[in-house]
Specification:
The structure holds two protein chains of two kinds. Chain A is globular and about 60 Å long. Chain A folds into two domains: 181 residues, Rossmann fold (3-Layer(aba) Sandwich), CATH 3.40.50; 127 residues, 3-Layer(aba) Sandwich (Rossmann fold). Chain A is of the alpha/beta class. In chain A, helix 1 packs parallel to helix 7 and helix 3 packs parallel to helix 4. Chain B folds into two domains: 331 residues, Rossmann fold (3-Layer(aba) Sandwich), CATH 3.40.50.970; 33 residues, no CATH class. Helices cover 42% and strands 8% of the residues of chain B. Chain B has 14 helices and seven strands. In chain B, the strands form two sheets. Chain B has a five-stranded parallel beta sheet, with helices on both faces. In chain B, strands 4-5 form a two-stranded antiparallel ribbon. The N and C termini of chain B lie far apart (62 Å). Classes of the chains: A alpha/beta, B alpha/beta. Chains A and B meet through helix 3, strand 14 and helix 12 of A and loops of B.
């Protein structure tokens, strides 16, 4: 089985699905000739031609609008927005159009589109190129939101997203793009949207995270005493999210710490904590804790690591939660 | 090739050249300004490669004449907005090179205390309202700045409160410059901003720094009417001009009358400024979209070399001798190398912003209690309950 980075796994999934389904087209700024801003689509234009891997002008609203039109007409477009901050100009099209057509037409018109978006911090980029705006899109009814943390999950989830009948926002953690390789099957496989993954099993505390923060959690686990038994869950899908997975785990452990990059207030951690107190209040032995970014703009790179949660902060929260 | 030949409209070359009437010292200063930007950007590239600069870095090398020539043609208190390739404009507007460099190094002595970086140079005392990271997004701000110019002149009758403006000072006729790249031509907000300026008569000059590529996409692959962008101006009822930006004096002579007209008439304009960037879009650009021959052909029209040659040979002082000699140019280069070296040293020696205070400051004027998690709450953001 070949070893792939996250970038290679996504590229492989795109190539495979384009081979399988002629309705799939990729469009975005410099995705063709230059291979995309993070080179995720490198080589695809050479393979599938400029009619299927389409270099667009620099116009996010236009890219998103065109992709929606393609999807409404029965295509399977995959627009790439270069950085999560650039979803701003496309927000109107995505949330006021794509998300709503199934509902507005009572199912007559749907938008099977996968919006690929490099996401999150940790690569020394400035704000608008390092943000984690997942909550905005999770909050918008009519969109699915996915954020894989590993090459294997990325390929399986991307294939699910492209085949999904509804619009999916596919956030790709930039910090993980080339950080490690793992075995990724060459053949076709899918991972259902909406299923979390238990990375380590444990009985004392449930640690919940997604994207690049999963690796900060893993690092934190290494620093904890051996007698602390922590269950680490990678959400993978942010909407719909896997309520059962976290509820079952917290019913077992009674304690939960949620870790995310986004600012704390109204971050997705707030919603997950609420679900936990609604669903397993009597099992809780301590308040659900959050380790999150601060309620500030993502700082310029010299302060980036002061902003982002890290293993130390996670370990501290785990310790506090266990000692409660 | 990025640029086709100039369209049907060419610039109006009047018989008297404005630059002939300017003092020699002004032209020498312009040469110095362009050389400063070139040297500054060269050293930025090195510092970026040494990982001393992060947060992306878009260099202006090749386009220096645009910033220097246009900014020289307006007044110091005419407001400017720009996109992200903004170091040159900040320097041409008078930002201290050390402060500019420190910002890119993320140091507390930078123009935004090291919290903005390369794309976000702001210098309010110099009426420089920023580099902006979202392509095209600044053009709406240009319309707003131009609106304020008209408002203070025609409605308030006195100048708005601003740094360096004495309270109650008379308002004067101003123009705003909104710089954009050719990639921004295709963003919706530009068309909304141009429509508003045309509709309301706002004195905003949209200067398209048309370097032929929006990142890796050649202009004719990304925008319609690439050979004659002034047709876009026609659509919004505003004056449109195409100006070649390879010769600083030609540029100034063509642009200055437009700027004066916009100020006098309080009307907008749109300039297709034909230029070229020698380096990649950013520091990480494989440049598969162009050939080395193409880059070299534009380097042979280099604006700094042209002006240097002009001042060394054609421009004569009262004594009939050229206003500059080779030794003067060498001395100027040596001096600028020192200036930029000092800027780098200043940046390197400046302290980083203190995360205990600067990470949480300036989000709101009155921070909420416990905004600083370091002080009260170690693992989360503002939480008034804890």
């Amino acid at each position: 089985m070949p070893l792939m980075t996250l970038v290679q796994a996504i590229n492989s999934a795109l190539a495979q699905e384009m081979e399988r389904d002629e309705r799939v087209v990729i469009l975005g700024e410099d995705v063709g000739l230059n291979g995309g801003v993070f080179r995720v689509t490198d080589g695809l234009q050479a393979k599938f031609g400029p009619d299927r891997v389409i270099d667009t002008p620099l116009a996010e609203s236009g890219i998103m609008g065109t992709a929606i039109g393609l999807a409404m007409a029965g295509m399977r477009p995959i627009p790439e927005i270069q950085f999560e901050g650039f979803l701003g100009p496309a927000y109107d099209q995505l949330c006021n159009h794509a998300a709503r057509y199934r509902s507005r037409t009572r199912g007559a018109v749907t938008v099977p589109m996968t919006v690929r978006v490099p996401w999150g911090g940790g690569i020394h980029a400035p704000e608008l190129h390092s943000d984690s705006p997942e909550t905005i899109y999770v909050h918008q009814p009519g969109l699915k939101v996915v954020c894989p943390s590993t090459p294997y999950d990325a390929k399986g989830l991307l294939l699910s997203a492209i085949r999904d009948p509804d619009p999916v926002v596919f956030f790709e953690p930039k910090r993980v793009y080339r950080s490690f390789k793992e075995e990724v099957p060459e053949e076709d496989y899918t991972i259902p949207i909406g299923q979390a993954k238990v990375l380590t099993e444990g009985t004392d505390l449930t640690l919940v995270s997604w994207g690049s923060m999963v690796f900060q959690c893993l690092e934190a686990l290494d620093t904890l005493p051996d007698d602390m038994s922590v269950e680490l869950i990678d959400m993978r899908s942010l909407y719909p999210f896997d309520t059962d997975a976290i509820v079952q785990s917290v019913e077992k452990t009674g304690r939960c710490v949620i870790v995310h990059e986004a600012p704390k207030t109204c971050g997705l951690g707030a919603e997950l904590a609420t679900v936990l107190q609604e669903r397993c209040f009597l099992h809780l032995k301590a308040p659900v804790q959050r380790v999150a970014g601060f309620d500030v703009m993502m700082p310029y790179y010299k302060l980036e690591l002061d902003y982002l949660p890290n293993a130390q902060k996670v370990a501290q929260a785990v310790g506090q939660c266990l000692a409660y | 090739m990025a640029h086709a030949t100039l369209g049907t409209r060419t610039m109006d070359r009047s018989t008297t050249r404005l630059t002939d009437q300017l003092p020699d010292a002004t032209l020498i200063q312009w040469l110095r300004d362009m050389m400063l930007i070139r040297e500054f950007e060269n050293r930025c590239a090195q510092a970026y490669q040494q990982a001393k600069i992060g947060g992306f870095c878009h260099l202006y090398t090749g386009q220096e004449a645009v910033a220097v020539g246009t900014i020289a043609a307006i007044n110091h208190d005419d407001p400017i907005v720009h996109a992200y390739r903004d170091h040159g404009h900040a320097l041409a507007r008078g930002m201290d090179p050390g402060v500019c460099m420190a910002e890119m190094f993320g140091r507390s002595t930078g123009c935004a205390k090291g919290k903005g970086g390369s794309m976000h140079m702001f210098d309010k005392p110099n009426w420089f309202f920023g580099g902006h990271g979202i392509v095209g997004a600044q053009t709406g701000l240009g319309a707003g700045l131009a609106f304020a110019c008209r408002y203070e002149h025609e409605v308030l009758g006195k100048a708005l409160e601003n740094p360096g403006v004495s309270p109650g000072a008379d308002a004067k006729k101003k123009v705003a410059l909104a710089f954009l790249g050719d990639g921004a031509l295709n963003q919706g907000v530009l068309h909304e901003a141009m429509n508003l300026c045309g509709l309301w008569g706002l004195p905003c000059i949209f200067i398209v720094e048309n370097n032929g590529y929006s990142m890796g996409t050649a202009i004719h692959r990304g925008t319609t009417m690439a050979d004659d962008l002034t047709k876009k101006a026609d659509a919004y009822g505003m004056r449109g001009e195409t100006i070649e930006a390879f010769d600083l004096l030609d540029l100034y002579n063509a642009f200055k009358p437009v700027a004066d007209w916009c100020r006098e008439e309080q009307k907008p304009a749109f300039i297709d400024m034909r230029t070229y960037r020698y380096l990649g879009h950013s520091m990480s650009d494989p440049q598969k979209y162009r050939t080395k021959d193409e880059v070299d052909s534009f380097k042979s029209r280099d604006s700094i070399e042209r002006l240097t040659t002009h001042l060394l040979t054609q421009r004569k002082g009262p004594d009939g001798r050229p206003v500059l000699n080779e030794a003067d140019v060498a001395a100027m280069q040596a001096e600028l190398r020192d200036v930029v070296k000092h800027a780098l040293e200043f940046a390197e020696q400046s302290p980083l912003p203190d995360p205990a205070t600067e990470l949480y400051s300036d989000v709101l004027k009155n921070p909420m209690p416990n905004m600083s998690p370091i002080r009260d709450y170690t693992i989360g953001a503002k939480n008034p309950l804890l």
